[in-house]
Amino acid sequence: MKRKILITGSILGLTAVILGAFGAHGLKDSLTVEAVNSFETGVRYQMYHSFLLLIVSSILPLNTKSLNTIFYLVISGIILFSGSIYLLSTKALTGMDISAFAWITPIGGALLISAWISITYSLIKSAK
């Protein structure tokens, strides 16, 4: 499981760098400043949580059940939070208007928050 989390964290970090470069260089002339800033928010949160996966899998003393929970919360959170921001901010280019589904962004954020709560709870529980 730890290997899977490390690999996933690395891939998510890699794609965050690629998407960040694309946002900074490929989108700045095609989208509004507000849309580019939103896109960059998605990239930033993806990168933060890529690092989180690397730390969770290599440093923190968590059991397999906690690792699984955190892994799936982070993956789901990144897909819903960052993914929806990518789509919402690039609708002028893609023609994909998912505004009716914008409610999935805060659900993704709640999943990311839940991952942090799970880490905190697991660490407190393991310290006893």
TrEMBL record:
<dbReference type="Pfam" id="PF04241">
    <property type="entry name" value="DUF423"/>
</dbReference>
<dbReference type="InterPro" id="IPR006696">
    <property type="entry name" value="DUF423"/>
</dbReference>
<feature type="transmembrane region" description="Helical">
    <location>
        <begin position="70"/>
        <end position="88"/>
    </location>
</feature>
<keyword id="KW-0812">Transmembrane</keyword>
<feature type="transmembrane region" description="Helical">
    <location>
        <begin position="100"/>
        <end position="124"/>
    </location>
</feature>
<keyword id="KW-0472">Membrane</keyword>
<protein>
    <submittedName>
        <fullName>Putative membrane protein YgdD (TMEM256/DUF423 family)</fullName>
    </submittedName>
</protein>
<keyword id="KW-1133">Transmembrane helix</keyword>
<feature type="transmembrane region" description="Helical">
    <location>
        <begin position="47"/>
        <end position="63"/>
    </location>
</feature>
<dbReference type="GO" id="GO:0005886">
    <property type="term" value="C:plasma membrane"/>
</dbReference>
<comment type="similarity">
    <text>Belongs to the UPF0382 family.</text>
</comment>
